[in-house]
Amino acid sequence: MRPATSSRRPLPGALFLTVFIDLMGFGIVIPLLPIYAERFHATPLAAGLLIAVYSLMQLLFAPLWGRLSDGVGRRPVLLLSLTGSAVSYLLLAGAWSLTVLFVARLLAGVMGANIPVAQAYIADVTSEGDRARGMGMIGAAFGLGMVIGPALGGALSLVGPRVPELFAAALCLTNVGLAAVRLPESLPAERRRAVRGHPLAPAALREAFAPAGAATLFTLFFLVTLCFAVLEGTFSLTASHRFGYSSAQVDVLWLYMGIVAVVVQGWLVGRLSRRFPERTLVVWGSVALAVGLLLVPATAGVPGLLVALGLVVGGQGLASPSLASLISRTTGPGSHGHALGVSQSLSAGARVLGPAGGGLLFDRLGAGAPYLAAGVCALGALGFALTTPPGTRQPAVAPLRKSS
Prior knowledge:
This protein is mainly alpha-helical. Helices cover 75% and strands 0% of the residues. It has two domains: 9-187, Growth Hormone, Chain: A (Up-down Bundle); 199-388, MFS general substrate transporter like domains (Growth Hormone, Chain: A, Up-down Bundle). It has helices spanning 12-29, 33-39, 44-72, 74-93, 98-111, 115-125, 128-157, 163-182, 202-209, 214-241, 247-273, 278-295, 302-328, 336-365, 369-386. The longest helix is centred in the middle third of the chain and has 30 residues, at 128-157. The protein is globular, with a radius of gyration of 20 Å. The relative contact order is 0.17.
């Protein structure tokens, strides 16, 4: 495998397409999981666990893939995870029991925990001035895949009961071919680190949190994700119970949020990061997140709700890629995968706790309680953001150029 050099840099679009196709395959099967669980007579608890087990695997394996990519390179880990995702969809298509369904989702969670590898790839090949833009591109690919995937999955399910999973598997295998051709290795052999122990072991975590400002950045990343996860886990219920919207109207609002996420992370972050430091974008994002969450229960109509949701999604879209960029700067090139893997593990934990905590508050205190609590949490994130250090500057990387 050839190490990347300044004359052999992948186009950002190749990585965008790789992540987009990966997440579109994931989005295709998400709306179908409750139907499959019902087919095997799963209890409501089992159906919920079928969703949660994916995030649990992300929590455990995101740092593992990230650190492994520090040792063997980004490209082989991406190719392995994409191939494993294809296998998980084939297993889902052929599931003959609830146990096999769980095995398929376990494998999907393990293999789908590759976002930190893609982020580390971006950190390897971008200069500091372009890094937040590159991280935003990953977020935009994530959002676009999650917007198109569920709609495509619903349409494919009308063709046949196994068609969505088979299509998702075909997408992943196509993605393997795309990555093999369009994504050369980004981490030269001389910058790689030996992989020792699990990255969530105490010694490895101490190493990740040790650099100046790293603990603050990890805390911020967790809080921002937690606040947004409360919205993700409760909004459909809130829209139905508090605003009286039909399922079709709720779907339109989710589509709107997905479009806002893509625009903010795929376009706005890149433009703003050229004029303002990432710390500023994190502060602005935290403010927008807090204001939007506090506005959700206070709105009385569609215009106000659109503004509130736009602020929440836009705030998270500004803060998350900027934080990923700052986290990557706390380490050297050979440790990007480990640091970003730990951040994605924290993000997965937040995506488990946020919906669970938000649902509990919704059940006990009413539809507005989750958003008030998340708004206060976002204000806490703002407090951390105001004390965020500038980050350790790493040597600039040669600018991206088209491969010859």
